[in-house]
Amino acid sequence: MQLARVIGTVVATVKNDSLHGRKLLVVQTLDRHLRESGKPMVAIDSVGAGVGELVFWCRGKEASFPFKREDTPTDCTIIGIVDSEAHVLNGP
Amino acid sequence: MIIARILGTVVATQKDERLSGKKLLIVRPINVDGSDTTGYVVAVDTVGAGFHERVLVVAGSSARLAQGMKDAPVDAAIVGVIDSVEVNGSE
Description:
The structure holds two protein chains of two kinds. By secondary structure, chain A is mainly β. Chain A is built from no helices and six strands. In chain A, 0% of the residues lie in helices and 38% in strands. Chain B is mainly β. Chain B is 0% helix and 41% strand. Chain B contains no helices and six strands. Chain B is globular and about 45 Å long.
């Protein structure tokens, strides 16, 4: 799992039936100091996140576990919203 | 998932039987602003996407979970045709 910032939305009318009704968001991965790292990805939302929020996300097959796991084709899912940036505590 | 643009098609007569009837497309990953990156992926189309369209591509074992892909030997599937991408308030 990694931290990310929700930076945008994606609209796709024509989708695989198994993605019907799912919200697609663009997420920018962050490092532990909340600096941008890597390229933005498109993620499915499972927690009701919105643009600008700090979230954590899961990739790989496990990304389908919040949904009907054998029927949801996603490799990137937002699984939690971080309360605030002050709640990300780093050691020295 | 990544955003990609369709570059071309692949025709393969001899293939795994679980892939029969499936359309294979060559896609190139692109950035959220629409600019091209390098490289390409051969992906199975599950939505009827067309040439040069922006699409959503699922990679890895999750590609197999798309409807119609059950137990197929696939690691990249096109699962959506993108209408618009909005990042930081602009499309």
